[in-house]
């Protein structure tokens, strides 16, 4: 081989001509209400055909203004739920009934004490005591002393006794009522309640 063979010359290839990209227009959401027509420019403006947002502007360059609804009124929706009391726990019913009966007994004792003080300040016991003593008095003997019989300690003692009896009976009746309700709920399904959410 007498000489070197010539290498094929590589010419730089020119990059392909870039195709013209279409001009991207900004996104315009559709208008809920048509643009108000005016004397200088309306929906058929010089900037574009009918319905084109770019040509709907007037001479001032302002677009269509969306007007709020005046007659529409939002009605609140109330959620409801139907529940059923299938069983009442007798132990919890007994505790609640006992506490309510104790509170009612204390209120009764306080109310009776206040009422006795008011009546004693008005002189009711002394007047009734004198009348009863004159009516029950015999010859040479005194009558029944109502004022000493209706003294405050004795009245409070009777009231406390009635309050204790009330506590026992109310607790027993509440517990018995819970058992009766559970027995009847097993047959009829219990009491249905409809609960609504207040907004």
Write the layout of secondary structure elements.
Elements: E1 80-85, H1 90-121, H2 124-136, H3 146-149, H4 152-188, E2 191-196
Antiparallel strand pairs: 1-2
Helix pairs in contact: 1-4
Explain how this protein is built.
Keywords: Membrane, Transmembrane, Transmembrane helix. Residues 1-12 have a biased composition (Low complexity). Residues 39-50 have a biased composition (Gly residues). The chain crosses the membrane at residues 96-119, 155-181. This is Membrane protein. The chain is mostly helical. It has a domain at 94-187. It is 43% helix and 6% strand. The chain has a two-stranded antiparallel ribbon. Helix 1 (90-121) runs antiparallel to helix 4. The longest helix has 37 residues, at 152-188. The chain is elongated, with a radius of gyration of 49 Å.
Biggest sheet strand order reads 1-2
Q: Work out the radius of gyration.
A: 49 Å
Q: What is the H/E string?
A: EHHHHE
Helix fraction, binned, reads: 40-55%
How many extended strands? Answer: 2
For the termini, the CA-CA separation is 103 Å
Shape: elongated
- pLDDT averaged residue by residue: 75
Protein name: Membrane protein
Keywords: Membrane, Transmembrane, Transmembrane helix
Pfam family, one: DUF3566
Descriptive tags:
two-stranded antiparallel sheet, elongated, mainly alpha, about 5% strand, 4 helices, about 200 residues
Provide a concise account of the structure shown.
Residues 79-197 form the DUF3566 domain. The protein has 199 residues and is mostly helical. The protein has helices spanning 90-121, 124-136, 146-149, 152-188; strands at residues 80-85, 191-196.
